[in-house]
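anyone else get weird line breaks when pasting these?? whatever heres mine. first is seq + tokens for prot A
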Amino acid sequence: MPESSSRRGSRLTVDDWLDAAMGVLISDGAGAIKISRLCERLGVTKGSFYWHFTDIAALMAALADHCRHVEETGGQAMADLQSLPPVERIEAMVALVTDPRRWKVEAAVRKWAETDESLADSVAALDDQIFAVAYDTMRELGFDDREAHARATTLLYAGIGYLHSRPRHGPASEDDTRIFIDLLTRR
């Protein structure tokens, strides 16, 4: 649905265009991002688009930068969890993945990263950070290297699987989450 009524009275910013492009990325993927679609969504003419971007490639480059920043922010969120006690840290990691605002963006960025190498590098860096935090947490819980590695890998892969399967299978219930955390942290 176009947002024309809220946009016509004010000049759009680059952030408005990036927000609109991110909305299309989340709903339909990178291939669906087109100037005409964004203009329709924002209720403006193509001239408004060209005021901010030379072409669709420039918008896509700016959106990719924005998505890399999202991944870096996710990495910082992981680093910030280090101060929590181990089980609370795992609970917080699971909560981050299951937060609807985060999983939608993360799933869309990961899908786009399948065809954009710079995004793939950012996603890989975030995955490395998630694994490192999970591994260190499992070691703190008393698991040896082999078990800590297996449990950290399980947490990482479960999170990635959740991002891709949630639209078809729905959100994890509180019981699902509690049992999952218990399985990962129980000796």
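and prot B, same format (seq, then tokens)
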Amino acid sequence: MSDSRLNRRTFLSLSGVTALSVAGIGAGAGPASAADGLPASPLIRVEGNTGPAYFREVAVHEGTVIQSIGFDNVNRRLYYAQLIGGGRQLAGESAPLSGGTRDLHGDLAITEWTLGADAADGGGTGRITGYMYLRGFGHGVGFGVEPSGTSTYLWTEVDAVQDTANETSRGRRLCRFKFASSSTPLDATSTSLQKFTPVPGSVNNTASIDPINNRLVVRYSLNGMHYRIYDLAKARAGDFGTPLAEIAEPAISIDRNRFGKPSFQGYAVAGQYLYMLHGNSYGYTQDHDDNPSTPKIVISPPGEGNTHLTSVDLNTGSIVTTFHSKAGYTLPFREPEGLAIQIPQASRPDVFRLCMGFASGETPGQREASVYYKDSLIQL
């Protein structure tokens, strides 16, 4: 999220957290019905604070905090999404725009990193090889990365709907487009975009991709936040008739006196399991007890934070584990932002990891990005 408008994310994330509902039962879920269930798959162990750094405090194209991350596991690329920073003037604009205006308009920047030779073994080297500007898309809470030959296609939100009360926007639909580095912005009205409406009547649409099973994950709001899982090839062809799985987003249960209500910061899917990321930047304060007469408290103290990782069974909609993660706790500035599945070696899709993005960098306007990961797989 943008540094100067932290309360917006809390409001939006809390409005989207719903009571637990099993696949397809939630109000407003629509006429589609999930199949018999996803096949059993390994579970990434979210517990433990020893997850190593994949990248630590690396530069990205904009100076804003990252919003989400994604991997092209075939072509060995890493992508970061951010809001476009204040003071930048793009083609067709009469003057530079502020960061607040960019957020309200849904203007995003995508940075491409090509991973180095040793990164497949966890070395974490790479370099910036491209960037794109997206105008009128949304906030960038999540996006999907789809390899296609030597090219990379992105699935993002699009057709941003402005929320003037909270000075932000969210995408009404999804779209797919080829990543092509350019200083010329890609507008939401471009005819080069494939646009989709997986769930009619929904808002706050974002996407992710399960790279192990070639499935599209759609997170959307319709009487609460929900997830649907689709076969990627069918989704690409516009077929959203029957999801492979469908659940309402479960509310995490944590110690509110200690951690408050952490903001929703990202999600990823691998096989049978959904992973969710919640948390706030160090020093974040919140009215944790809904009593305006009591003072706000720091719910994300430096060196500890309130970052939580949660695993969810997509066949039942129930939470498997929620864990308070201190990964990257030594970062001077640390805000959890984005989850993604990485396959370090394309020849071994059975060996994968859950990567957590963190906005880092001590100076506002000069933020950096860090990525930590979990790779302990268990079979339940």
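btw re prot B: The chain has one domain: 6-378. The radius of gyration is 19 Å.
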